[in-house]
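<context>
A single protein, sequence plus fold
<entry> Chain with its tokenised backbone below
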Amino acid sequence: MIGVAFQGLICFRIWSALDPELVAEVLAVVRDLANEGMTMLLVTHEMRFARDVSSKVVFMHQGRIHEEGTPEEIFGAPKTERLQGFLANSEF
């Protein structure tokens, strides 16, 4: 078996328990890392951030993938009713 070392960042809602000032700081750091080309897997409800920073977005609901694509595809032309409803109630 060949192993590949992963060099990147995996985060699950890292800003969910932070006050708004700290959220802005954490988002800025993650955005800087993305701009430097770091590979990241982020779980977030921050749709504006996901749209602005991602090269690929996967929308999940109840543990299942409903849609995946570029930010332009996901935010510009959502295909499923579930994603359409989610985005209609999100700020982005």
Q: What stands out?
A: Residues 8 and 66 are 25 Å apart (CA to CA). Residues 8-23+36-88 form one domain. The chain has a mean pLDDT of 88.
